[in-house]
Amino acid sequence: MLSTIQFSRSTKSKNEEAYLKRVMDSRHLHGDGEFTFRVKALLESMYENYEVLLTTSCTDALEMTAILSGIKPGDEVIVPSFTFPSSASAFASRGAKIVFCDISPTNFNICTESLEALITNKTKAIVTVNYAGIACDYGRINSIVDGRSITIIEDNAQGIYASCKDKKLGTFGDLSTMSFHNTKNISCGEGGAIFIPKDNQTLISKAKIIREKGTNRELFISGKVDKYTWVDIGSSFLMSDINAAVLLASLEDVEIKTFRRLQVWNQYLKAAKALGSTSLQLPLYMNDFDHNAHIFPILAENELKRTKYFKIANDMNISIASHYEPLSISPAAIANGFSSSCPISEDVSKRMFRLPLHDGMTSEDISRVVDYIGMLT
Ligand SMILES: Cc1ncc(COP(=O)(O)O)c(C=O)c1O
User: Fold this and answer.
1) pLDDT tens for residues 331-369?
2) Mean pLDDT of 17-28
3) Which long-range contacts (CB under 8 A, 24 or more apart) does 328-337 make?
4) Which residue's CA is minimally distant from atom 13 of ligand 1?
5) CATH dotted code for 254-320+355-373
6) Domain 16-252: top CATH class
7) Which end of the chain is more exposed for a tag (fewer CB within 10 A), N or C?
């Protein structure tokens, strides 16, 4: 019996064991140790003009953006319906009303044609999700919000090392976040980061307090005050230095990991195009972007066909996956009075399936998936 091809797998990085040994020997296992500062420095060299603060997850980073943008009960936050629940819950937990926006049927990002009509004088923020490491239409989004006091929160959970016209994803919003969860291209089990423009030192100082349980401990550690105390609201958002050690090793391999993923991704696209099917919607649009091969999404003609493709994959011991359930009709949306109709999200959710994709795939794994693609009729 053939072994199962996993949908996603985090592979060991070159320096992972050495860094783990070093952090364990140091006994500095909590936040803001050597490895946290090394990851921060590396990310800040990749994302110039941004202060990067490591967090326990992208969810926590999103919660920080909600506090930093002053979201309060009665405010409205526009969120795409086709996204991970954290993109909405981070703002709902501060009392905001979540207004769901439908997505584009071609790239699954927030639909800029629907967006404008959803803006009211209560809109405080718009969450933009760069699905599969593809930038939203920020030109259009910026022109829609121009002159209004609305914060763009770029949920760039999936966008490490991706760019659009030479501008890195994560540098489009007023604030942005990233995920280093095990399923992401660069990972440390659980982890995330918030990116804040360096020219907003007031916001950076506030973020450092929020991340440190609402205290000015950061000033204490850097020797600027002799005691630290409670100064604002916050939570325990710091990443442990153990996770940061794993993350540093993973991040140092970002180029090779992305390259390997892209190699897999391109072979899938070639095989899928060779099918010549007019009923499958392939991610052809992604070739126009410097994406990071985070996801290979395909839309089946209908839900029935998708069920058939799942069965074939299962018979071939290949793990494929659907994606988000539309948040606009989720139990939480209904219970909180946020539910609305987002027909494209609902349709995409029923038809999408994703192929296995990680940087540890062998050529045998890839050819088995290519054979599977050949059966998508
Ligand atoms: C778009 C998006 N936002 C946020 C998250 C949450 O990330 P984390 O697991 O790091 O909290 C995810 C997770 O997959 C995601 O896809």
Assistant:
1) 999 999 999 999 999 999 999 999 999 999 999 999 999
2) 98
3) 328/81, 328/100, 330/85, 332/85, 332/88, 332/89, 332/92, 333/88, 333/98, 333/100, 336/92, 336/98, 337/97
4) 84
5) 3.90.1150.10
6) alpha beta
7) N
The C-alpha atoms of residue 115 and residue 129 are separated, in whole angstroms, by 14
Residue 1 — very low, low, confident or very high, per pLDDT cuts 50/70/90? Answer: confident
Give the burial string for 102-122 (b: 16+ CB within 10 Å, else e): bbbeebbbbbbebbeebbeee
Predicted structure pTM score: 0.98
Q: Say which residue the tokens 């994803």 belong to.
A: 169
pLDDT tens-place string over residues 197-239: 999 999 999 999 999 999 999 999 999 999 999 999 999 999 9
Residue 24 Cα to ligand 1 midpoint, Å, equals 28
The pLDDT of 293-300, averaged and rounded, is 98
CA of 227 to the centre of ligand 1 (A): 35
Atom from ligand 1 closest to the CA of residue 62: 4
Give the C-alpha distances (Å, rounded to integers) separating 135 from 78, 83, 168, 243, 310: 17, 14, 9, 28, 29
Residues whose beta carbon lies within 6 Å of some atom of ligand 1: 57-59, 83-84, 86-87, 129, 155, 157-158, 179, 181, 192
Alpha helices in the chain (DSSP H): 16-26, 34-46, 58-68, 86-92, 112-118, 138-145, 201-211, 217-221, 241-252, 254-275, 303-315, 331-335, 343-351, 363-373
Quick one: pLDDT at residue 303? 98
Contacts with 64 (C-beta within 8 Å, 6 or more apart), sequence order: 53, 55, 194, 207, 210, 211, 237
Can you give the residue ranges of every domain in the chain?
Answer: 16-252, 254-320+355-373
CA–centroid distance, 119 to ligand 1, in Å, is 25
Minimum CA distance residue for ligand 1 atom 14:
84
Ligand 1 atom closest to residue 184's alpha carbon, by position in its atom list: 14
